[in-house]
Amino acid sequence: NKHPRPRLRFKFYLITAMIMIPALVEHILSLVNNMSAEYLPDGGANATWTDYMELYANRSHAFILSS
After folding, report:
1. Between vectors from CA 24 to CA 17 and to CA 34, what angle results, nearest 5°?
2. What stretches pass through the bilayer (predicted)?
3. Which of 32, 36, 46, 52 is the most buried (most CB within 10 A)?
4. pLDDT at 44
5. How many Cα atoms within 13 Å fall on the side-chain side of residue 5?
6. pLDDT in tens, 4-33
7. Over the range 25-55, which residues count as b (16 or more CB within 10 Å of their CB) and which as e?
């Protein structure tokens, strides 16, 4: 009894998922690490998306923005 060979499409999906899922997790962890609400005015109570993005850009890309 031979098992049918996996289809090429399935192999591509599997390889793509094995690369993209850890990359997505890493990206989300980077955002969480650099967007702590404690650095926002009022502890982030009235923060907007723009405030969070400004904080993220300043904390994660300061070496680019300082020049």
Report:
1. 170
2. 12-32
3. 52
4. 66
5. 3
6. 877 999 999 999 999 999 999 998 888 877
7. eeeeeeeeebbeeeebeeeeeebeeebbeeb
